[in-house]
From TrEMBL:
InterPro entries in the record: CBM6, Cellulose-bd_IV, Galactose-bd-like_sf, Glyco_hydro_43, Glyco_hydro_beta-prop_sf, Glycosyl_Hydrlase_43_Enz
Species the sequence originates in: Aspergillus campestris (strain IBT 28561)
Keyword Signal attributed: yes
Pfam families xrefs: CBM_6, Glyco_hydro_43
Signal peptide: 1-28
Family: Belongs to the glycosyl hydrolase 43 family.
Single Gene Ontology MF annotation: hydrolase activity, hydrolyzing O-glycosyl compounds
Protein name: Carbohydrate binding module
Residues annotated as the enzyme's active site: D40, E214
UniProt keywords, alphabetically: Carbohydrate metabolism, Glycosidase, Hydrolase, Signal
Site (Important for catalytic activity, responsible for pKa modulation of the active site Glu and correct orientation of both the proton donor and substrate): D154
Length: 454
């Protein structure tokens, strides 16, 4: 087997500029995060929400992977995603130095375990494990050293019905260990899976003879175990295999999703939520996007009756929203279906808010149900200088105006004040809500922490 180095240099050859695109996507919901570049989705269903752990490409242009931390988002409707900040970064692992790459989180015994590949300065990778008492973190290094030293990348974790946990990983090999009940140690040797044509298809490349490349994602549905993976580098597509146990033997299933050509890699994460299977992946579809500025996207799908996968396409629309958003409870401003211009910010006190707001920037919140109608809007805002106003529109960013709230200077970027204004929304209105930010200054106008209608 070749080392992962040869694949890495192949990835380096992919020029970012080659794939640069900058279409206007004001109506789309994919990619699902627009405030930063996200990669390597690892969704986990917990407490009636989908938590989405991701990698993070620093804002570009980048001519290689530039990844310092991981990020967390969650949703209860698969359309509006709340940002939870960065619960884990390279700083947590003093024994590693660069490359915060693709990981996965799982819960056991009321603790959350996050398996991640990280490297030293020479790009020699190991797998670390971080732990937290709360799914939103903070996560700390669980053992103070690598869990699997000198490994390849891309850990996926799975707990079988009998309680045995498995950690798989690898590029271009596929390996696993059996984790102990404590989830931070393992028993037995590292097992290398034999990559056969029957198990993983074949491609015309003596160095990587099967379709398998990297990014395994292991789970069980009914009696069938699924090993989904990024295939056929590069650009990669998503393919899969199935088997009768968590250790195979594996039978090759074919291609699930083709590459769009906007990113050299892809990486899959799959969950079932409210009886619907969801398929997370990444591409380079955001403006400025490419192989090193990727973005996580989402599709819903149905399995074929025999358990095989349908062919999936990357879409701009993503899945249908589940239910609607309730405007009468306090909603975090960083709950977003689509935004343009602004950023999400983690403040000094750990408060997460929307900032870097300039004139004309906007946030779309999808499917808001104004059951009894609304007469008043309130928001928590802060501004050291400038201020401005929040225009509330329904249906489109330039749709019907239902109210305008003035935001005055509060004396600090995190000196919060609640402002209110009258609005007019008829009963039984369910529509997309747009916050359009207006101000005279060319600089940052104000920050928004939360909002609520009455
Ligand atoms: C987890 O943290 C969040 C804040 O990020 C908090 O709202 C929630 O109550 C915490 N959950 C538990 C079980 O402590």
């Amino acid at each position: 087997m070749s080392s992962s180095k040869s694949w890495l240099s192949a990835a380096w050859l992919l020029s970012v500029g080659q794939f640069l695109t900058s279409p206007h996507f004001a109506k789309a919901d994919n990619p699902i995060v627009q405030t930063l570049y996200t990669s390597d989705p690892a969704p986990f269903v917990y407490d009636d929400r989908v938590y989405l752990f991701t990698g993070h490409d620093e804002d570009g242009p980048n001519d290689n992977y530039n990844m310092l931390d991981w990020q967390l988002f969650s949703s209860a409707d698969m359309a509006n995603w709340q940002y939870h900040g960065s619960p884990l970064s390279l700083d947590a692992f003093p024994w590693a130095s660069i490359n915060a790459w693709a990981g996965q989180v799982i819960e056991r015994n009321d603790k959350f375990y996050w398996y991640v590949p990280v490297s030293n300065d020479d790009w020699a990778f190991s797998i670390g494990v971080a732990v937290a008492d709360n799914i939103t973190g903070p996560y700390v290094d669980a053992i103070g050293e690598a869990l699997v030293a000198g490994s390849e990348i891309d850990p996926t974790v799975f707990i079988d019905d009998d309680g045995q946990a498995y950690l798989y990983w690898g590029n271009p090999g596929l390996f696993y260990v059996k984790l102990n009940e404590d989830m931070i140690s393992y028993s037995g040797e590292v097992v290398e899976v034999e990559l056969t044509e029957e198990g993983f298809g074949s491609r015309d490349d003596p160095e990587t003879p099967t379709m398998y490349q990297e990014g395994p994602w292991l789970y069980k549905r009914g009696d069938l175990y699924y090993m989904i993976f990024a295939a056929k580098c590069c650009p990669e597509n998503i393919q899969y295999s199935t088997g009768p146990s968590a250790t195979g033997p594996w039978t090759y299933g074919g291609v699930i999703m083709d590459s769009a050509g906007t990113s050299g890699t892809n990486h899959v994460g799959i969950v079932e939520y409210k009886d619907t299977p969801y398929f997370f992946y990444h591409n380079g579809a955001l403006p400025g996007g490419g192989s090193y500025t990727r973005s996580v996207c989402l599709e819903s799908f149905e399995y074929n009756p025999d358990g095989t996968f349908p062919t999936l396409k990357m879409t701009e629309e993503g899945p249908a929203q589940i239910g609607a958003l309730d405007p009468y409870v306090r909603q975090e401003a960083e709950t977003i279906a689509w935004s343009e211009g602004l950023k999400t910010v983690t403040g000094e006190a750990g408060v997460i808010f929307v900032g870097k707001i300039n004139d004309g920037d906007f946030i779309k919140v999808k499917g808001v149900a104004f059951k009894e109608g609304a007469t008043k809007f309130s928001a928590s805002v802060a501004s050291e200088v400038n201020g401005g106003s929040i225009e509330l529109h329904l249906g489109a960013v330039d749709g019907k105006v239902i109210g305008t709230c003035a935001v005055e200077v509060t004396g600090g970027w995190e000196k919060w004040k609640t402002v209110s204004c009258p609005v007019e929304v008829a009963a039984d209105t369910t529509d997309d809500l747009f916050f359009k930010f207006i101000g005279d200054s060319a600089d940052d106008l104000f920050n928004v922490d939360w909002w609520q209608f009455e």
